[in-house]
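FAQ: What does the model actually see?

It sees only this:
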Amino acid sequence: MFHHAGGSHLLYRGWAAHFQEDWEVCLLDAPGRGQLQALPLIDDCDALVAYFHEALTPWLNRPFAFFGHSMGSLVAYELTRRMVREGGPVPAWLGISAYGAPHGTAGADGRRHLLPDDELRDWLRNAGGSPPKLLDNDAVWRKFGPVFRGDFKLVDTWEPPRNPAPLPVPVQVFGGRDDTLMGPERLLEWRAFTEDFRGLTLYDGGHFYLAEHRVAVARTIMDAVP
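And it is asked to produce this:
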């Protein structure tokens, strides 16, 4: 399970309890946060995908699936594409949450990593999902601001693939009905990026809808993964 920009594995804290006992739920951290705070941040999508590919290789000798939220969806998608290209094991299922299908060019969705601190903090307040103490406390922001800025640089500078072949992997999409950052039209565009589109499931809530629906989302994942 891949986390959002500025986040960590804590996005999915407690989720494992909602899966069957014979499932192993791996809550991943990108370098520079969570359990990997000592490692330098990675602000390039290809580099982060390469990092996760190497880190996960020992675990790919068994059936596995990917679920990503927001930036985590981008990372999970690009990691799946890399696995398909290299002819190795591929996920049995890919879950995309609150992230639109690739289109346009790098920076098509904005340049958040270039915003002044005050504007970036306001943007994050409107998006939700970040505790007020992080955004309102200057000392705390000095610690975590670079994490957000680095992750947004990763997303903003990622070059979408031109005419990519549809993935030979089932793709299922999730989102919040009130998400002002990512509407259902963008989410449904994932239909063109897979040979097996499993549909869009919407839940009440905004961009971080899954905080209130983790039991339902976990059940949907278990029902969907072959």
